Amino acid sequence: MSTCRYPKRVYQKIPRRLPLIEQYPLYALRLDGSSGYVVVSHSASLTLGSTYTFQIWMKSTVKDGSPHIISKRPPGGGAFPIVLWWDTANSQLIFQANDPTTAHQCITDFDVFDGEWHLIHCWRDGDEMRIYVDLDLKATLVEAIGDTDNTDDLYYGQRGDDAYWFDGLYALPCVYNVPLSLGEMEHNAYNPLSPIRSGLVLFHPMIEGVGTSLRDESGEGNVGTITGGVTWEELMKYELPCAIGL
């Protein structure tokens, strides 16, 4: 891992405004792998069409049972319009988009369940899908991907039907209705509390540290509801960007 470049803590003069990461504690949510998850009720801003980017920081060592990290799934089951999950049987990280008849899977065998923090971007622009891990492109899929019906609730930590639980930590989820550039992803990695605003439709900064809801700082009102076995965990300053060598 490269040497972490910490910002200077001694200021020549008091700045007008400290960086956001200096103003607020940074938290993650620990999901227990059996009952804990977050759900965001569907809204018009989360009807993403064929262009979007999902961003999430995660840390876990438990990959049994094919845990689902992100899922948009219709009530009662059915196809998975958008899902990021670990296929335990084949040791693969899969970003999946379903049209009404076919599952389109962008797949990498890069293991993100190694007990380290990882920054994951699930990226789609029309007929192309990508997975980025720690700002590195790990997988690309280019094929005819039909329109995706994703007017469903968004889940973090399970499939949406009390199954395929995620056991570990996750932090700072963002959803965009545009495919971010690599430079924009890098900006978000360096500035976890000040993400790119253009196209942002969900941002949970997790600065509350307590409670059962996650306020949305995107301006779209996509509040997250914390359910079941979930606890708050405070992080060290710069723990996330330093974890991936920034």
Describe the 3D structure:
The chain has three helices and 16 strands. The strands form two sheets. Strands 1, 3, 8, 9, 10, 12, 13 and 16 form an eight-stranded antiparallel sheet that branches. The longest helix is centred in the last third of the chain and has 9 residues, at 182-190. It is mostly beta strands and 246 residues long. It has helices spanning 20-23, 182-190, 239-243, and strands at residues 26-32, 37-40, 51-62, 68-72, 82-87, 92-98, 103-108, 118-125, 128-133, 136-142, 154-156, 167-176, 200-203, 213-214, 224-227, 230-235. It has a single domain, classed as Jelly Rolls (Sandwich), CATH 2.60.120. Helix content is 7%, strand content 39%.
Topology diagram in text:
Elements lengths: L19 H4 L2 E7 L4 E4 L10 E12 L5 E5 L9 E6 L4 E7 L4 E6 L9 E8 L2 E6 L2 E7 L11 E3 L10 E10 L5 H9 L9 E4 L9 E2 L9 E4 L2 E6 L3 H5 L3
Antiparallel strand pairs: 1-12, 1-16, 2-11, 2-15, 3-8, 3-12, 4-5, 4-11, 5-6, 6-7, 8-9, 9-10, 12-13, 14-15
Please summarize what this structure is.
By secondary structure, this protein is mainly β. It is built from three helices and 16 strands.
Subunit organisation of the chains: single chain
Mean pLDDT: 88
Which regions have little confidence, pLDDT < 50, spanning 5+ residues? 6-15
| Helical content class | under 10%
Strand content: 35-45%
Q: Biggest sheet, in brief?
A: 8 strands, antiparallel
Question: What is the domain total for the residues?
Answer: 1
CATH architecture: Sandwich
State the distance separating the first and last CA atoms: 9 Å
Any idea what the radius of gyration is?
Answer: 17 Å
Briefly note the structural class of the backbone: mainly beta
Number of helices: 3
Pattern of helices and strands: HEEEEEEEEEEEEHEEEEH
CATH topology: Jelly Rolls
Query: How many beta-strand elements?
Result: 16
Shape: globular
